[in-house]
């Protein structure tokens, strides 16, 4: 009987292994949202294509890349120096400063465009070498210097504000808060649950945040390339999270859940995306931050649970983030929640055990050695 029992478990291992391999090798579809939270959406022929960016130029400059920001930063000063330098050169040309005596000049020692450009740069940067200076007998040049000084203060304020806003950007803080690479389905108090992990990698802990999860499906219409999007929110236990230690977000597969009738075999054919987000205020700046990611059916591990990563010592709670994405097989019926609840208390042979799974790198890798260890796994 022990031989038949071992053969039975090896067959279950092989079946589970092939199911996961089928999910991973299935043709990759375009994700609604990338793992890093970006959406692969391109607007074509939108009305007023550039007007939204120009109307909110400050936000546009905050959101652009740093290298583009440095280019705009440099060009804004160089172009302003050139513009005012050209104005000074025109004043010198009209006033004939090239041939006039020193007591009749508008700007001293400005004999050409190069001198006018240097005077413009010295004025706007408040360098003040003293070699080039303004005479009081030229009112037009005095007015121009006044305008340049005011413009210089305004430009410095805008540039400094944009740089400070970019350095305090919410996206940078969001990169230190992350979700697990995969979601798992297991039993909790006799109920099938879908769960995933959320953790904060920084030392200053988040004491207030809200989790949201949405199922996104798209159906292709008859017209070529046309799709229709549908959104269904998931009910989450303890939507408000205290993230002092990593938290496990739980959604019960109960009647009313969009995934109530989805089983492990249905994941091979079903096409949906679980979009999850965590919105929280920054403890240092008070700004709202948002971390988000998405899970496809290939990212959902049926019959697994996350390994424990929190231990208690005499003086502190120790969190081992090396186990953040680690999962372990647990006994879970290979049935949808609807079928499981319908036949609950019936034939117990529907419940099956699975081998150990270890998280390694960006994808879950199966460890099929020592299949007899399955019998020692415990359910949550």
TrEMBL record:
Q: InterPro entries, per this entry?
A: Ig_E-set, IRK_C, K_chnl_inward-rec_Kir, K_chnl_inward-rec_Kir_cyto, Kir_TM
Q: Which residues form the Potassium channel inwardly rectifying transmembrane domain?
A: 33-169
UniProt catalytic activity: K(+)(in) = K(+)(out)
Does this entry carry the keyword S-adenosyl-L-methionine?
no
Keyword line:
Ion channel, Ion transport, Membrane, Potassium, Potassium transport, Transmembrane, Transmembrane helix, Transport, Voltage-gated channel
Please give, as recorded in its UniProt entry, the membrane topology of this protein. Answer: Multi-pass membrane protein
Task: Provide the Gene Ontology terms for cellular component.
Answer: monoatomic ion channel complex; plasma membrane
Pfam families per record: IRK, IRK_C
> Which superkingdom is the protein from?
Eukaryota
Note down the stretches annotated as region Disordered.
341-366
Write the protein's name.
Answer: Potassium inwardly rectifying channel subfamily J member 16
Which species is listed as the source? Mola mola (Ocean sunfish)
């Amino acid at each position: 009987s022990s031989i038949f029992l071992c053969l039975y478990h090896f067959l279950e291992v092989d079946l589970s292994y092939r199911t996961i391999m089928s999910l991973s090798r299935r043709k990759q579809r375009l994700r609604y949202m990338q793992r890093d939270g970006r959406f692969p959406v391109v607007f074509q022929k939108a009305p007023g294509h550039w007007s939204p960016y120009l109307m909110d130029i400050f936000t546009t400059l905050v959101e652009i890349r740093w290298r583009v920001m440095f280019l705009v930063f440099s060009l804004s000063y160089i172009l302003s120096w050139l513009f005012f330098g050209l104005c000074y050169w025109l004043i010198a040309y009209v006033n004939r400063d090239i041939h006039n005596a020193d007591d009749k000049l508008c700007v001293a020692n400005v004999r050409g465009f190069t001198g006018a450009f240097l005077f413009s740069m010295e004025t706007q940067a408040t360098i003040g070498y003293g070699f080039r200076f303004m005479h009081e007998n030229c009112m037009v040049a005095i007015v121009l210097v006044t305008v340049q000084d005011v413009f210089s203060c305004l430009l410095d304020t805008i540039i400094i504000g944009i740089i400070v806003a970019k350095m305090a950007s919410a996206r940078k803080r969001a990169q230190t808060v992350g979700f697990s690479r995969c979601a798992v389905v297991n039993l909790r108090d006799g109920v099938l649950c879908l769960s995933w992990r959320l953790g904060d990698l920084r030392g200053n802990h988040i004491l207030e945040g809200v989790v949201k999860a949405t199922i996104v499906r798209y159906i292709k219409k008859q017209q070529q390339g046309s799709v229709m999007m549908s959104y269904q929110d998931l009910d989450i236990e303890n939507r408000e999270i205290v993230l002092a230690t990593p938290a496990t977000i739980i959604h019960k597969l109960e009647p009313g859940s969009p995934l109530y009738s989805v089983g492990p075999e249905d994941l091979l054919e079903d096409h949906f995306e679980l979009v999850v987000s965590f919105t929280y205020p920054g403890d240092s700046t008070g700004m709202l931050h948002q971390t988000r990611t998405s899970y496809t059916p290939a990212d959902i591990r049926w019959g697994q649970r996350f390994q424990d990563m929190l231990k208690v010592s005499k003086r502190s709670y120790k969190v081992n983030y090396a186990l953040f994405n680690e999962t372990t097989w647990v006994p879970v019926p290979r049935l949808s929640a609807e079928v499981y609840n319908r036949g609950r208390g019936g034939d117990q042979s529907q419940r099956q055990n699975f081998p150990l799974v270890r998280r390694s790198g960006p994808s879950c890798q199966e460890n099929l050695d020592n299949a007899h260890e399955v019998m020692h796994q415990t359910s949550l």
